[in-house]
Amino acid sequence: MATPSMEDYIEQIYLLIEQKGYARVSDIAEALSVHPSSVTKMVQKLDKDEYLVYEKYRGFTLTSKGKKVGKRLVYRHDLLEDLLRTIGVMEENIYNDVEGIEHHLSWNAIDRIGDLVQFFEEDETRVHALRDIQKKNEEPE
Ligand code: CO
């Protein structure tokens, strides 16, 4: 896995705070498979950029800017999972595929993917039509 980006950190911190009410350096290090010292360094940078407030011995909280960005990043991640699930990507691939592509798409592309997911969600026959094509494509020649 590539070095986690600033966005990965904000995303994970947002998720941890949502799930547990707090985010510790050790939890973030585990979630992102990095050394705690890398987390501390990034947390200090995020503090400087006003995404969170860091207090050395008391953990930290997201600022409203950090929450807003975190919420958007989690929305984007979930939307891309919805897309891959809808188009029939194998469950075991979905999380890592999304982690691999999410930082490389423009918000414009994300909005259009939102339309596409909605297109499938609004009418189940559209999903069935896609599955029919997929079945055909999987048939041996
Ligand atoms: Co993600």
Total strands? 2
What is the share of helical residues? over 70%
Intertermini distance: 36 Å
> Are any ligands bound, and if so which?
cobalt (II) ion
Features:
about 140 residues; mainly alpha; two-stranded antiparallel ribbon; binds cobalt (II) ion
List the helices and strands and how they pair.
Layout: H1 6-20, H2 25-32, H3 36-48, E1 52-55, E2 59-62, H4 64-86, H5 91-101, H6 107-121, H7 124-138
Antiparallel strand pairs: 1-2
Helix pairs in contact: 1-2, 1-4, 2-3, 4-5, 4-6
The protein binds cobalt (II) ion (CO).
Provide a short characterization of the protein structure.
The chain is mainly alpha-helical. The chain contains seven helices and two strands. Residues 11, 77, 98-99, 102 line the site of cobalt (II) ion (CO).
What does this 3D model show about the protein?
The chain is mainly alpha-helical and about 140 residues long. Helix 2 packs across helix 3 (about 35-50) and helix 4 (about 65-85) packs across helix 5. The chain has a two-stranded antiparallel sheet. It contains 7 helices and 2 strands; from the N terminus they run H-H-H-E-E-H-H-H-H. Bound molecules: cobalt (II) ion (CO). Cobalt (II) ion binds near residues 11 and 102.
